[in-house]
């Protein structure tokens, strides 16, 4: 039995024709994903933006999707590669359901499958340009993990991708604790997303928070955070700056 | 079963809709020494009789670990059994590697059955001549399956295959209803008692049988000779009582199979003509 690792067209390195098929740089990208474990499961937040370089081209992209019964997948990076991954997972979940035998893929299995896919693509010098966040609940156990485009994979109580790693995780390290209530979890995520909104130029003020518990997945409707721009420092930003440097 | 003009090729049907080569393969299973499996809700015990070619040689290995949570006991052409065990180990480890999760035994068994079916539909192949008792765990608990050379598989509470397995089956048929809630120790004891039935009078010693256990929270492992001997000692100490009971159970009393077993038509001629074992 071959496990369904997607293969691209042969040798991405040798052939001149196939060379243009390797992923060299991303085009339409999503920015950070922030996710935490809480009392009943996992919460995952992302904004709905798709940047085309420095242009904020798309403003209605869902970057968090439900996978099977037990998992939630969030992605930052190349949006088309994310869609490709969703297709692979769709096939995986379909085959799992076709067995119809009371066994089902849990978040751990999906996370490991994705790790294999990402690492194998990296080894062919043709990566899927994403950092993925996989969260889920099965049999009362919460699971939260991450896979990067080079196949680095790990689990933790809170994860973030891209700028989130630098801006959100320090907040989470200080303020996350086990058994957060849903309201506290959302507040914590909003705090992280607000910082990202202020400081990440590819973030937009339209976000979704997804929740996964034993019962299933809920993705919130898009909404905006309140922001405040009347800080004194913003009024005359160049005051105190002497010269061009 | 007698020779007939439709039995040369596995791909030739008989006029009565039978594939004789496949049925002959199932006969090979009956020639092997006995293998027995039983399960409770949380454990599976596999036991077999250690048959050696001669006094000089060691006995053949008939029980294999496939993974921490799956074991298999074989009867028939042990070479075929070894090859299939290697296939099962390969499937289990590939799944483990990709998903970091144990392969559900129910899915392994289907792969095995599909592999066996291929050999019943290719003119350049022959069916595997080995029956496999696969015991393992999945999300819904402990399971025991029997995989047949025909490509069929069945789930059992308890089963026995190989030569003189009818005696063991009769013993198991009387007790299987209680196996679901049996403790691990009782399950082991029942397995060894079932092995004793197949020995038909020969004294049961721990050197004559191999026993393996797996269960929820207990990875597959073999019981050592000491442990087996201890269990034997609990019932062999009172030979008169147990012998009396064994006499009652009787070998060769072909009871109608209530629970698990498809009818084993060992060596009967006319009786077989109308019933293809693999269709049950």
UniProtKB/TrEMBL annotation, chain A:
Function statement: Non-catalytic component of the proteasome.
Subunit structure: Component of the 20S core complex of the 26S proteasome. The 26S proteasome is composed of a core protease (CP), known as the 20S proteasome, capped at one or both ends by the 19S regulatory particle (RP/PA700). The 20S proteasome core is composed of 28 subunits that are arranged in four stacked rings, resulting in a barrel-shaped structure. The two end rings are each formed by seven alpha subunits, and the two central rings are each formed by seven beta subunits. The catalytic chamber with the active sites is on the inside of the barrel.
Native source organism of the sequence: Brassica napus
Family annotation (Pfam families): Proteasome (PF00227)
InterPro entries assigned to the protein according to its UniProt record, in alphabetical order: Ntn_hydrolases_N (IPR029055), Proteasome_alpha (IPR050115), Proteasome_beta4 (IPR016295), Proteasome_bsu_CS (IPR016050), Proteasome_sua/b (IPR001353), Proteasome_suB-type (IPR023333)
Entry protein name: Proteasome subunit beta
Family indicated by similarity: Belongs to the peptidase T1B family.
Localization, UniProt: Cytoplasm; Nucleus
TrEMBL record, chain B:
Gene3D superfamilies: Glutamine Phosphoribosylpyrophosphate, subunit 1, domain 1
Keyword terms, alphabetized: Cytoplasm, Nucleus, Proteasome
GO biological process: ubiquitin-dependent protein catabolic process
Stretches for region Disordered: 242-280
Organism domain of life: Eukaryota
Annotated transmembrane regions: none
GO cellular component: cytoplasm; nucleus; proteasome core complex, alpha-subunit complex
Proteasome alpha-type subunits domain segment(s): 6-28
Leader peptide range in chain numbering: none
Subcellular location: Cytoplasm; Nucleus
UniProt KW Cytoplasm keyword: yes
Compositionally biased residues, Acidic residues: 242-254
Subunit structure: Component of the 20S core complex of the 26S proteasome. The 26S proteasome is composed of a core protease (CP), known as the 20S proteasome, capped at one or both ends by the 19S regulatory particle (RP/PA700). The 20S proteasome core is composed of 28 subunits that are arranged in four stacked rings, resulting in a barrel-shaped structure. The two end rings are each formed by seven alpha subunits, and the two central rings are each formed by seven beta subunits. The catalytic chamber with the active sites is on the inside of the barrel.
Purpose of the protein: The proteasome is a multicatalytic proteinase complex which is characterized by its ability to cleave peptides with Arg, Phe, Tyr, Leu, and Glu adjacent to the leaving group at neutral or slightly basic pH.
This protein's name: Proteasome subunit alpha type
Organism field: Brassica carinata
